[in-house]
Write a structure and sequence with these properties.
Elements: H1 20-43, H2 46-59, H3 65-82, H4 90-100, H5 106-158, H6 163-184, H7 195-222
Helix pairs in contact: 1-3, 2-3, 3-5, 5-6, 5-7, 6-7
């Protein structure tokens, strides 16, 4: 496995012993870390990610500072490759990072802080996405409420009834909001779980408003 290459600190031909640490780190950064992150991306499987992540993080407990540093570089590469998806493994990674924060070698400690900052950037992205999702749902709720009351009132005033009216409403209540967030807000609905995930919390209340306004106006004006 690639993780088993981390303890390989043997200098290659032409490397001076005094440059061994920096040379090892360069090899990991340029070759091993990209290969490991690409393997993670290709695997595309949480169970495989968990196994490989565990292999890498165990190397962070090596007696050699350069190997501990190398394990952090591999971890950074995995986050840079997989982004917020890799946060699923954060809980089991935290104990290793906590240990490395107190590492005797300042280079390892510095690399640990860099790794934590990288992870925090993806956590901030996820929090921002959740906030935007709440905002979008609120906007969609009021948009559907206004649409439902308007369509219900128009149909009731015109005295229209029957299945075609329901079809017009339910097609409109899906199409109108999706056109609004796509064309005016520039939002990719897939970032929020898809169209129905966004509409899910609003369609029920919107349908109730539609029926009340439709039946109310129809009853007042045509019965």
């Amino acid at each position: 496995p690639l993780a088993d290459q981390l303890p390989n600190t043997k200098p290659v031909a032409g490397e001076k012993p005094e440059d061994a640490y920096d040379a090892y780190i360069s090899r990991v950064r340029d070759t091993l870390a990209p290969a490991a992150s690409q393997l993670m991306a290709t695997a595309g499987n949480d169970a495989m990610w968990k196994m490989l992540n565990q292999f890498v993080m165990l190397k962070s407990r090596s007696d050699f500072a350069c190997v501990r540093h190398g394990a952090l570089l591999v971890l950074q590469a995995c986050y840079e490759k997989l982004g917020e998806e890799y946060l699923i493994l954060l809980p089991e990674t935290i104990p290793y990072l906590a240990e490395l924060l107190e590492d005797d070698d300042s280079r390892v400690e510095r690399a640990t802080h860099e790794t934590i900052r990288l992870i925090e950037s993806y956590l901030a992205f996820v929090r921002d996405l959740e906030w935007r999702k709440d905002e979008l749902r609120s906007v969609v709720f009021w948009l559907i409420a206004a649409f439902s009351l308007s369509i219900g009132s128009i149909l009731g005033v015109l005295g229209l009834r029957g299945l075609p009216c329901l079809i017009v409403y339910f097609v409109g209540v899906v199409v109108a909001p999706s056109m609004y967030w796509s064309n005016f807000l520039g939002i990719d609905e897939q970032d929020f779980g898809g169209k129905m995930e966004i509409l899910n919390d609003s369609i029920g209340s919107g349908a109730a408003m539609f029926m009340l306004s439709w039946v109310g106006f129809y009853t007042m004006l045509h019965t």
